[in-house]
Amino acid sequence: MRYKSCPDLRCMLKKHAIHLNPASASCAVCASRGESIFCALKHKELQEIDLEKGFNQYERNQKIFQEGNRPLGLYCIYKGRVKVYKSGFNGKEQIIRLAKEGDVLGYQSLISGENYIASAETLTESTVCFIPRNIFFALLHKNEDLLLQVMQLLSHDLKIAENKVATLSQKPVRERVAETLLLLKETYGLDDDQATLSVVLTREDLANITGTATETLIRILSEFRLHHIIELSGKKIKILDMEALLNAAAVND
User: Fold this and answer.
1) Which of 14, 143, 145, 194 is most buried, taking the most CB atoms under 10 A from its CB?
2) Rounded distance, CA 93 to CA 2, Å?
3) What's the CA gap between 171 and 72, in Å, rounded?
4) Which of 230, 188, 211, 191 is nearest to 98 (CA)?
5) What residues does 83 pair with on adjacent strands?
6) Exposed e or buried b for every residue in 235-245, given b needs 16+ CB within 10 A?
7) pTM of this prediction?
C-alpha cells in the first residue's frame, strides 16, 4: 500500500544508534517516512517521536515480537524486510504478511489492546524503530491525517486478509504459487536486471506464503522452470515470461 507523498521523506532512528550518523537519527530526514502512515506528520510531531523512540538492529531470522506477547508500542521498519506469521499446532508457519521499509508492525494488536496474534521475524538484516504506545496514541488523538492513514491501512489489510482466505479456499496450488511470485515482485521489486526478484526466501518460506507443502512448492517451481516461465539460481528466482506467469496465476481471467 502506498501513502500520499510528503516533501520531507525520512524517519526513525535513535537511542542505540551510536554508530550511525546523528543526522540520520531524525524522523524528519528518514527516506522511509514517505511510504509510511507518518508521512503527514508535522515537524513538531516528528520531534515528539524523536524524543521518545528507540530502534534495534536485527540479524537475519531474528524475532521482533512474539505471538501471544503484549504490545507496548508500534514498530516501524527503517531498513530491511520482515515476515509476519502465525504458528500452527504442528509448528508449521503460515506467513500472513510481508513487510518492507516504511511499513508498521503490530499496530492492530496495539489498537485493539490484545496480545499479538502473530509473530514478526526478519528476512534480512534490518533496522526497526519502536514508538512507545503513549506517544503513538497521543499523536492519533490530535492528528486527523494520521488517524485517517491508520484507518485506511486497517481497511487495506482487512481486504488483503479476505482475499487470502478466498485464494486458499478456491485457487489450485499452481495458481497460488504463481500469485506468490507476483506478490514478491509487487512487494520487494526486481533487481537491476528488471527480472530477478529482489528478495531471497527459503523454499519453506515460499511454501508458507503460498499455503502448501514445501515439496509441492518445489515441484511447481521446477515445472515453471521447465516451461521457461522462471529461472532458478540457488534461492534466486528470475521471471523470464511475465505474461505466462500472469496466466498461471489466473490474473487475466
Assistant:
1) 14
2) 27
3) 38
4) 188
5) 98, 121
6) eebebeeeebb
7) 0.84
Burial letters 166-199, b for 16+ CB under 10 A, else e: ebeeebebbbbbbbbbbbbbebbeeeeeeebbeb
3-class SS of residue 20: coil
**DSSP code, position 22:** G
Q: Which amino acid is at 243?
A: E
**Among 29, 93, 88, 21, residue whose Cα is nearest residue 61:** 93
Please return the burial class of 111, using the count of CB atoms within 10 Å of its CB with bins 0-12, 13-18 and 19+.
Answer: middle
With the CA atoms of 107, 147, 37 and 162 taken in that order, what torsion angle do they form, in degrees rounded to the nearest 10? 60
Cell numbers placing 220: 511447481
Phi, psi (rounded to 5 degrees) for 167: -65, -45
Amino acid identity, position 228: H
Q: How far apart, in whole angstroms, are the C-alpha atoms of residue 128 and residue 100?
A: 10
Measured CA to CA, the distance from residue 213 to residue 199 in angstroms comes to: 21
DSSP-derived secondary structure for 179-224: HHHHHHHHHH-B-TTSSBBS----HHHHHHHHTS-HHHHHHHHHHH
Using CA atoms of 204, 210, 212, 215 in order, give the dihedral in degrees to the nearest 10.
-40
* 24-50 confidence digits (pLDDT tens): 457 888 888 888 999 889 989 999 999
d(CA 49, CA 22): 15
- In the structure grid, which three cell numbers stand for residue 189, read together? 521489486
